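Researcher: Let's try something more involved. This one mixes different molecule types, so please make sure each is placed in the same coordinate frame as the others.
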Amino acid sequence: MSESFYRENAKKAIADDKLQAAINLIQDRFGTGLLNLWKEKPEMDELRNRVKAAKDKNLKNLDILLAKLADSVEARGGHVFFAETAEEARLYTIELAKRRHVKMVVKGKSMLSAEIKIDQALADAGIEHWETDLGEYLVQLDKDIPSHIIAPAVHMNREHIGDLLAKRIGTPLSYDPPALTLAARKALRRKFLKADMGITGCNIAVAETGQVSLVSNEGNIRMTGTMPPIHVALMGMERVVANMQEHKDMLQLLTLGAAMQKISTYVSFNGGPVAEGCPDGPQEFHLIIIDNGRSKILADETFSEILSCIRCGACLNVCPVYGKIGGHSYNRATYSGPIGAVIEPLFNGINAQADLCKGETLCGACLKVCPVKNNIPRMLLALREKLAYGDEKWDVEQQNPLEELAFRGVGEAMVSPRLWHTGEKVVRSIMKKKPHQNDMVTAMSGPGRAWTDDRDLPPIAEKSFARLWKEKLQNRPLPAEKKEDNSGKDEGEEK
Amino acid sequence: MSAGSSGTFNNSFLFNPMAKRKVSLFIQCLVDSMFPHVGEAMVTVFDRLGIPLEYPPGQTCCGQPSFNAGYQKEARKAALHFIELFEDSEDIVCPSGSCVSMVRHDYPELFKDSPKMQERARAVGKRCYEFSEYLVDQLGVSDCGATFRRKVTYHDSCHLYRNLGIDRQPRVLLNNVKELELIEMKDSTQCCGFGGTFSINYPEISTALVDEKIKNILASGADVVCGCDMSCLMNIKGRLSRLGETVEVVHIAEILAGSEK
Ligand code: SF4
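Model: All components are placed in one shared frame. Result:
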């Protein structure tokens, strides 16, 4: 098998000790931490179920809810634009920027902005743009992409960051985190003052009130949404909730899921542009509600559950595979980890993202930790099924007809014990001829080689359990009879 | 009745009407072909407890490897074969958590388009138990009368722990083995990296994960690692062997069957 991009990058990440240490840290702290929290506070289960149920209900009434949201935002003097595709969202933003002669944009951290590739569009239009979340800013300076939904620069260590800031913005070389943060902060403040437009994402939008909530720990998002004269909020169409009660519940799960916080340092309620009696805020507010493949997911009940995702990143923090390969190995997709493994194939093609569908162990840790209990393993299996046989609805080509043939053969044997045991015999005799050490097979060929490259393989036993049962076990003396021959020892199996 | 002579039992199972039930052994394919001694160990334990056993012939594989690789049609066929084989069994007991999880949770899902089949799948699933779970929760056994003079650490297999919620039962059993010292390793519930075809398709990731597991096993200071699922244990054993480590890998049934070591 030729090695895929996924595997190649995975290998590099595994060999990168510094990356491993950084991911370990965040997984130990947030991933294990959250799993323990769910265990220690079973009463949280009610909240989790409540949010999931609200999400379910809202997804079923999405059209009505979004119409209501649009009305509420407009009633507050904001503008609403429904973008069916990423391109429509980009065009709307760029045209608005051109109309208003925008020269510089500041951005609040938003995965959706990466999903719709707004940066490239801004650059192509000659508009300077700056990330203002510290991690995103570092990633931008490094001309890289985020490697974690919540901690975009988790792959960078302080030495890398010190060198990067010295090189790119001319700060005195330092590896001291507070000094580095201060240097970045200074540089960013100047950008806030100069910016003509702020672009943010949207964590939660409330249909009833027409307000958009944004969560941050650095306060940069608040400034992005209020200092420049124009605020554009990009919103995935599934982010809407009906009312403030739902908002409260979801916010709590989001900050817990993201960083084990009861509440984040900042929660900004963006209620539209300045108005009489409301002197704070931008001159103009635009909410772009983006579909970009979400309707299609919503229409398929196998996958619609994934739209309940609140993008907290907790599943990344417990995933053993993410823990080893890091965020960049997922074909450098916008979303990585378990959530990325489901949503990226649905967004960008199941064939193209086959490694994301198949590259997990199905250990189930993501399901356990997910605040809204998204059943990611189930959806990964459904994606694999499409790769196994092909699928018209999702335009999937069968990935490996030979593999199907093999599984069909094994499938036949599974329903025919005779065939099954013949197969066993064949494998036994093949394995017998392979090199052994300490009763273990050390080198196989064919697909088995992938195993024996790094591991030994126990041989097929001389007699299967089925045979042992038939030959001796079914007629074994029972304990009552055994008592008489005074046997304190058990038979056979002990070493 | 003193079943066997290697220990006294503080078990109430003898007064438990459930003990009258007959156990049908569901031997995971991997145990059947590669680790039959694990099946034999189960037989020893049940014999000692006086539980009547049968082994429905014609068992192959529960279909999990196909299922996890996306080959649901093949998995469905295997499921049907299994259901037909075990439909008349009273209690079905298996030495593998992931196989039980497959039967209990995934079979009904596989037949979600056919209510009748789904009902049959559910009925069989309800009677299907993992070995340690069956001993502790169904028979009320905590002491199997075993002795094992070693330091043991326990690996929580993913499907056993997360899909079936079994973590207390094996520990209860191990803690009641005479002279056994149970030492918990760090992150015992972390995946060992096996994942069926995953280990063949993505060997480098799989190896990185099993190495992490092995690091924690070695750090625990135990000289035996034990678990309730041979697939994970085969992965751990295979890597330990390649690394030349001497830590022994055993299924919990082997420990529980042991009288002296
Ligand atoms: S799938 Fe669940 S855990 Fe993962 S990012 Fe979404 S809400 Fe968080």
